[in-house]
Amino acid sequence: MAKKQTMADVLDLSAAERILLAQDLWDSIADEPDAWTLSDAQRGELDRRLQTYRNRTAPGSSWKTIKPRIQRKG
User: Fold this and answer.
1) pLDDT tens per residue, the chain (74 residues)?
2) Is-contact 36 29, C-beta < 8 A?
3) Nearest-angstrom CA–CA distance, 41 and 35
C-alpha cells in the first residue's frame, strides 16, 4: 500500500514532480469516466460552446496581424 501523503509532503516536491503528480491525478480521473457525471447546466454549457465553435466563420487572426498588437502591449 502506498504511503499516505500530506499536503506538506506534496509541497516539498519539486515543481516538476508536482506537475507529474497533477498529471497522474487527472489521468486517474479520466480512467473512471463513470465515476462522475455532468449536470444538465454543465452539459448545456458544453453544448453551447461547441455550437459557438462550429459556427465560427473565420479561423482566427494571422501571426502577421497579431504580432504587432502583442508588441504594442509589451
Assistant:
1) 466 779 999 999 999 999 999 999 999 998 898 888 899 999 999 999 999 989 887 777 889 989 998 998 76
2) yes
3) 18
